[in-house]
Amino acid sequence: MKALHISAVVLAALVLCSCGGRKGESREVWLASEGAGVLVFSIDRKGGLTPLDTLPRGMRLEVSPEGRTKLEGRAYLPVKYGKKGAYVAEGSLAEDPAGAVQEKTLYVRTTASIIDDTLASHVGGLARKGSELAVLGFDRLLPDGTVNRYHVQCGRAKGWLYGRYTAPTKEEASRRYDRFDEAHAKVKNSFRGGEALGCEFEPYPKLTDPARKMPDPCYAFYLPISPGNLRRIDDYIALADSTRVNAFIIDIKDNECPGYKADAMAKHSPTNYARANARQDKLYEEVVRKLHERGYWVAGRITCFKDTYFAKDHPGASISDKATGEPFLHNKSFWPSAYSRDVWQFNVELAKESVRKFGLDEINFDYVRFPDKMISIDTLVNYHNAYGESKVQAIQNFVRYACDELHPLGVYVSIDVFGESANPGYTTAYGQYWPAISNIADAICAMPYPDHFADHYYGISKPWNHPYDILKAWGARVQGRQAVTPSPAIVRTWIQAYHIMKHVDRNGIDNDASFIWKQVRGLFDAGLTGGYSTWLSSGNISVYRSQKEAYAVDFTQPSDSLKTARE
User: Fold this and answer.
1) Which H, E and C letters describe 396-448, residue by residue?
2) Strand, coil or helix: 529
3) Which of 13, 74, 244, 565 has a beta carbon 3.0–4.6 Å from 559's, enabling a disulfide?
4) What is the pLDDT of residues 485-524, one digit of tens each?
5) Structural domain of residue 121, as residue ranges?
6) Residue 87 and residue 116 share a domain
């Protein structure tokens, strides 16, 4: 466990001055309370108490013991505050900063991870809504007197929990943020993904960093992990400079394709470490530096719960066959379980290391889900569900954990989801429930690729050949999901930059500039104005160049066609 560091909150704007007493008899004290604020009083001419101000606990003041007075059955001491001084109840003063926080028991308001090693982001337990917490200490006070993180014990688990996830009483902690529960109650658990109402929807504070602000709208080129692509970064920059593109998403770890020899890999996944490029970190540094010099936003993409190498290293943390106990091979890959906190820690530690090492602006987590197409074999595998969560709960809890750990670094978090997760009628079999994810992440990045929709979806014949119609119809569904999300994320959508897959339609339309333009125009016309990212697994610059005309369009301005946009 890491050492506890206490820092007192000092508000320099408040002027401290003399309030009587003989010289040398004043001493420093700290305002203390079971809540964030402490009342200070003045004494009127009749000797009565009048509330003067509410100050944040942890504030340092000077007190004169000689002025101790007893009023209304309580003892008060004079403190130096303002021009006339003030009085504070004796029980609201502490001799050291550690005594500023007086609460001994709290309750969990929002289910969240207990972190027993804050440097390594190690999860020591799950604090469930309504559970009792014994307060052992705290790390620091925020300017308003609230606690950043409490050191707590919850059952057998001991560690750190953010103060915003706590409440002073069990009644308050058990109260549900239910503004949209009527809508969530209508969502069916048809595919064993979990009940929508099993998730929690207390508004989550999005990252706001004036020094590092996500472009709005954000237009991003995707670049795969291949050194051949990254070494041509000057060519990609030259292309982007001639368009409206203002961001790049670069792979840090893809399934069976780790980017660089990260310390997090050496610690948690030796196979990923062994397969990573020994010299790639220098290339990443150069690429990110050049992009930042040109003013581009840079996100690092990390695949989470599809990672064959990690699964081979940790079969006990991976989805396994109940009959054999061996990792279960699905779609030619092994899948770490999204229930496993060891998997959570690995991916978040890798993210934190990459942010510190390369200066990334955002982490884009992909494969934040359980495997798809597993309904028929769901009962044949062991997910190693240690906390008894539903799939949608586990995914939401991971997203909260990831944002909690990354936001203090000033880095934004985006989560990739299937386009299907925007459907209002059910929670998905793989655990993605749109409002539960959007409520927490800074950006939610769906993948509604036209060739992923079945024929006549939304009543559209061959939707892959009608990219505008299908994306506009899908965007309307998204607006419905965002409307029942208390603190919705920015919607930045992955668009299809590759050709229609041949098994879908050998005669599918070309992935040219018009194909790109129609997708994005459909999104913007549906009101999804957060931007787009190009999904082209090869990152082939020749393809991007062939689509350049669309990337040069300012989609915040209306136009009837690509031809109109040209003019």
Assistant:
1) HHHHHHHHHHHHHHCCEEEEEEEHHHHCCCECCCCCCCHHHHHCCCCEEEEEC
2) coil
3) 565
4) 999 999 999 999 999 999 999 999 999 999 999 999 999 9
5) 105-175
6) no
